[in-house]
């Protein structure tokens, strides 16, 4: 008789559980179906490089694994790669001979091409010019542009020039070390210079090169000198479309910035350029003067292309599409009168113009996503020169804004769970079987809870690829996962489909291949995640099992409370809100518990998702508070109620006090042991709340800022070293905005410039009101954050001068909060000591209640 398995001995979430979190990245089959490549992320505490971006967790440590699909051999790490580097999967070569990764190590990016499964690798020295990630600029350069079986093109820049902010921390450290030593040894000048000028800089071209890389020879060749972006290759690989990049323009002094546009995309001249690879010739078009690099698109054959552009004296949102002849570069404007073009985010309420949604150039005209002015429904319209726009998707239920394939005569897209082909010659033709619903392409369907994606998939639709299994759709019967895959031949006149059942509950498809007759999926096993290869006859092979240690971790209990917030100004009626409480282990509703109230200036409260359901490493995880015996809550802060005539957050303290009362009245909160915590925008919000209310026993503020006036003008922390032109007012967008509503992105909006009302900026800042804080304060900051650490130097100085109890911890080499496991552990040691000192801590940190 078989004995029952021993019950799992569970424990509360510990910091070491968080630091042991693993991840799954991208997966891709080779074009011939013979190879599978995928990224896995080892346990966070076992990485060797924590310098990536502003905080490394979730984005560092990717390993590349490969598996041959034609034998039963187990997967293995790709040979020839640096085991101490992060290797992001970029994709396979067209002939499937090589796999390419973007390697990051200590602030240095390299492209590396390896023969798949072999130790034969080529490391290319030029630094790829990946666009800035933090500011959410479009990923115009974040993919390979293949020009032949063994060559690809990518823009590059000098190592010390600004490019990707993903590498800035380590690159800055190296830069400073070298500069310091040059100065100390007298070997050279170490000055850097920023210039404020209003002259036309549209012809001051930024430095860089457009380079072609050969994976066969390892050689690189400069195709065009200068910084380029948005590269698109013609179908024959002869021509390259790109936008040449000028230096940044200083914004007009009277220009009103738009909330959330931290760094405008179209703040410089982007000149339309055509490069002939075979002749080594570069031509620059005179019209349109300025182009959106994300709009460049070829006809299936290279005789013409389309682009969205605008004249020098126009705003980007006032532009239009052009069709351009390749031979002459003559540009023919297309009118979209009566239509409002859909923006690239496909969000009609988006705050600024990020360029139009991707268009498709057909023989009959240009297919664009738009809606009639004054209407809300968007459709695909064909712009045809002097003729009226033709609605291609009329009659379809909710046509998708994302194209699947494009050829000379038509486009394919999803609508209401089915796939359709749209042409100018007739009604939409359904391509997928009747009675079957699809969630979308496999690449769009992937959503594992443990995903650590850095996506380098080209955003352009497939154009004219001769591949009988060009399109792969995921089939879903519910929102809980994917049930099957359909492999389709969508070439005109040959639509046929083959079904591939998954037979796995709650599966999420990462990649699939018709030629390999296989798919890669994730499924949950308790709190662990399995990465499975599903082959013919639904036979599965486990590639990896991650985060199994979380099966021994308690999930905290949750409780939702509802209460009303009253307008501190008395102008609005009571506002009903809800809050989710994460409860401590062994929760007893008859007892009173300390509360960790996290504040972040947003109008909705936190949800009840837990770490064990959505594991991701981080410096501060809510369940680490509950493991310490606290109730955790992230309350709603309706920003229209928080605003007063004088101060954008003048009523915050009142709202937080009302939340404290609600927790005490409807929940088991001890009103005398409320800790106010905030990070980033929550960092300054916690300081604001502490200056306005005496309801808190302690305040913890991490990586925020404290002085509106100096922050308005000051450098953006780390950005001062490379991105010199972002000094002197780039923070103004946070303050000059003036949006209204309960949940918007303008929590600090004064509606006027700092020079127009400096006294108001100054007197409402937490640094100027430090003497009104009654609770002890723990300040935490980093020297390589975008929020300058000097802001908390000021705040600590104000608290010190006011005779307040305060601790100030600074982490060196860190970005937006600690990334290094040693610093994360140190942070919690200091938090525990501070809370014990403040008299609100439970008897011990992370009490073990597993028995």
Question: In brief, what are we looking at here?
Answer:
The chain has 13 helices and 48 strands. It is globular and about 75 Å long. GO terms for molecular function: serine-type endopeptidase activity.
Features:
alpha+beta, Rossmann fold, eight-stranded mixed sheet, five-stranded antiparallel sheet, Peptidase_S9_cat, hydrolase, Peptidase S9 prolyl oligopeptidase catalytic domain-containing protein
Give structural notes.
By secondary structure, the protein is of the alpha+beta class. Among the domains are: 140-173 and 201-208 and 216-334, no CATH class; 336-430, no CATH class; 554-838, 3-Layer(aba) Sandwich (Rossmann fold). The chain is built from 13 helices and 48 strands. The protein has an eight-stranded mixed β-sheet, sandwiched between helices. Strands 9, 10, 11, 12 and 13 form a five-stranded antiparallel β-sheet that branches. Strands 18, 19, 20, 21 and 22 form a five-stranded antiparallel β-sheet that branches. Strand 25 (365-372) and strand 26 (379-384) form a beta hairpin. The radius of gyration is 28 Å and the shape is globular. Residues 132-137, 465-469 and 843-851 have low confidence and may be disordered.
């Amino acid at each position: 008789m078989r004995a029952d398995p021993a019950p799992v001995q569970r424990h509360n979430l510990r910091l070491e559980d968080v630091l042991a979190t693993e991840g799954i990245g991208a997966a891709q089959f080779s074009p011939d179906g013979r190879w599978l490549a995928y990224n896995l992320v080892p346990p966070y505490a076992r990485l060797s490089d924590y310098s990536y971006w502003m905080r490394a967790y979730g984005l560092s440590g990717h390993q590349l694994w490969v598996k041959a699909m034609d034998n039963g051999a187990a997967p293995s790490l790709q040979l020839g790669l640096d085991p101490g580097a992060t290797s992001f999967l970029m994709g396979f070569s067209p002939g499937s001979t090589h796999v390419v990764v973007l390697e990051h190590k200590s602030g240095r990016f390299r492209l590396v091409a390896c023969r798949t499964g072999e130790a034969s690798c080529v490391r290319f020295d030029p630094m790829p010019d990946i666009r800035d990630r933090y500011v959410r600029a479009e990923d115009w350069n974040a993919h390979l542009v293949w020009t032949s079986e063994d060559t690809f093109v990518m823009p590059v820049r000098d190592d010390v020039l600004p490019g990707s902010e993903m590498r800035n921390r380590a690159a800055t450290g190296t830069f400073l070390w070298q500069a310091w030593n040059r100065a100390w040894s007298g070997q050279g000048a170490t000055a850097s210079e920023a210039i404020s000028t209003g002259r036309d800089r549209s012809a001051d071209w930024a430095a860089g090169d457009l380079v072609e890389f050969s994976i066969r020879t390892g050689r690189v060749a400069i195709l065009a000198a200068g910084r380029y972006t948005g590269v698109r290759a013609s179908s024959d690989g002869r021509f390259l479309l790109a936008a040449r990049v000028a230096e940044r323009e200083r914004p007009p002094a009277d220009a009103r910035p738009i909330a959330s546009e931290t760094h405008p995309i179209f703040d410089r001249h982007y000149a339309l350029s055509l490069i002939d690879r075979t002749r080594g010739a570069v031509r620059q078009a005179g019209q349109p003067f300025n182009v959106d690099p994300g709009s460049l698109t070829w006809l299936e054959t290279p005789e013409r292309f389309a682009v969205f552009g605008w004249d020098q004296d126009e705003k980007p949102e006032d532009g239009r599409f052009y069709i351009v002849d390749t031979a002459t570069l003559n540009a023919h404007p297309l009118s979209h009168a009566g239509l409002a073009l859909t923006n690239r985010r496909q969000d009609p309420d988006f705050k600024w113009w990020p360029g139009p949604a991707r268009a498709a150039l057909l023989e009959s005209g240009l297919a664009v996503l738009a809606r009639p002015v004054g209407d809300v429904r968007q459709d695909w319209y064909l712009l045809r020169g002097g003729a009226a726009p033709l609605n291609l998707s009329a009659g379809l239920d909710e046509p998708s804004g994302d194209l699947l394939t494009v050829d000379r005569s038509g486009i394919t897209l999803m609508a209401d769970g089915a796939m359709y082909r749209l042409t100018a010659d007739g009604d939409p033709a359904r391509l997928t079987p009747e009675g079957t619903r699809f969630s979308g392409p496999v690449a769009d369907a992937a959503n594992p809870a443990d995903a650590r994606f850095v996506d380098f998939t080209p955003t352009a639709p497939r154009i004219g690829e001769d591949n009988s299994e060009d399109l792969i759709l995921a089939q879903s019967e519910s929102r809980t996962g994917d049930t099957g895959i359909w492999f389709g031949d969508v070439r005109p006149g040959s639509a046929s489909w083959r079904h591939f059942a998954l037979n796995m509950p709650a599966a999420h498809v990462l990649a699939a291949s018709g030629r390999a007759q296989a798919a890669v999926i994730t499924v949950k096993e308790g709190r662990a995640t399995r990465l499975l290869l599903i082959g013919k006859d639904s036979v599965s092979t486990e590639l990896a099992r991650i985060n199994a240690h979380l099966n021994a971790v308690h999930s905290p209990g949750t409780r939702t409370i509802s209460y009303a917030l009253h307008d501190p100004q008395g102008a609005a009626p009571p506002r009903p809100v809800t809050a989710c409480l994460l409860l401590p282990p062994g929760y007893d509703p008859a007892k009173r518990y300390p509360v960790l109230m996290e504040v972040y200036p947003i109008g909705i409260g936190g949800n009840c998702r837990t770490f064990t359901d959505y594991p991701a490493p981080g410096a501060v995880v809510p369940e680490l508070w509950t493991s310490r015996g606290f109730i955790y809550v992230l309350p709603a802060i309706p920003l229209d109620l928080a605003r007063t005539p004088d101060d954008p957050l003048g009523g915050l303290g009142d709202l937080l006090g009302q939340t404290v009362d609600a927790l005490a009245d409807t929940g088991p909160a001890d009103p005398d042991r409320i800790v106010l915590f905030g990070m980033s925008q929550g960092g300054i919000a916690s300081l604001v709340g502490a200056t306005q209310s005496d309801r808190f026993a302690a305040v913890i503020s991490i990586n925020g800022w404290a002085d509106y006036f100096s922050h308005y003008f000051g450098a953006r922390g780390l950005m001062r070293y490379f991105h010199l032109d972002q000094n002197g007012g780039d923070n103004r967008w946070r303050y000059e905005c003036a949006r209204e509503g309960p949940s918007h992105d303008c929590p600090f909006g004064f509606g006027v410039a700092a020079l127009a009302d400096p006294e108001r900026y100054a007197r409402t800042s937490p640094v100027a009101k430090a003497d009104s804080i009654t609770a002890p304060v723990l300040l935490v900051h980093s020297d390589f954050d975008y929020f300058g650490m000097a802001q908390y130097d000021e705040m600590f100085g104000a608290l010190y001068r006011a005779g307040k109890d305060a601790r100030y911890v600074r982490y060196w080499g860190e970005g937006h909060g600690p990334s290094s496991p040693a610093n994360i552990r140190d942070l919690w040691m200091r938090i525990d000591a501070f809370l014990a000192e403040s008299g609100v801590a439970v008897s011990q940190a992370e009490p073990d209640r597993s028995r």
